[in-house]
Amino acid sequence: MNSNILAEKIFKKFSYFEGNQHIASEYALKCVLQLINDFNVKSVLEVGIGIGCIADSILEYSQEIEYTATESNEFCLESIKNNVNHIERVFFFDNLSQVPENKMFDFIIIDGSDSSLFKIKKMCKSNTVIFIEGGRSLQTNELKKIFPKILHAEMISDYKNPSYGPFSNKVWCGGGQLLFPFPSMKMKIYYLALKINTYFKRKKRK
Known about the structure:
- This protein has one domain (3-205): 3-Layer(aba) Sandwich (Rossmann fold).
- The chain contains 6 helices and 7 strands.
- It has helices spanning 3-14, 26-38, 53-61, 74-83, 137-146, 185-205, and strands spanning 43-47, 66-70, 90-93, 105-110, 124-133, 151-155, 176-180.
- A 7-stranded mixed β-sheet has the order 3-2-1-4-5-7-6, with helices on both faces.
- Strand 2 (66-70), helix 4 and strand 3 (90-93) form a beta-alpha-beta unit.
- The N and C termini lie far apart (33 Å).
- The mean pLDDT is 96.
């Protein structure tokens, strides 16, 4: 299935679940799947799996991805048992401190808070991509301190929230923050293209 169509399908599905006010936006799901495809991701760490919207999208998109997630909220942990297909493929930990430090990931998604965020430094490969869902300036700024050479670009939409979701359709559909801790040449080119794309989207928003 086309990644954008899948993202729309999963977003609609989660829009009817209890706790939907905290799910990732439709555009954020599209960004996540795009990055998985563009950077050939095989292993994912999601910090704060919540009720499972992002995880369900990724697990449906690829059968090959190894998925690790953190979550300590009892409501979320109970909800994802019914919300997420292929939940048996997810390795769970309460927080980052419990994730083995020798475990490394291609793609790290930050979708919640964690007081041990600094621990992801040892979990990054030379080609790791990080995506922070939504704004989350605190996490973004913390990562900039952890990784001195990090490149950061916003991923924003040029359309408003769909009417079938839990968010106001008068507001621009949210995206996220893309970060490259150890930017390769491919990542630098990707970053520049994204900055240009974002510039024109902001002009369109006006």
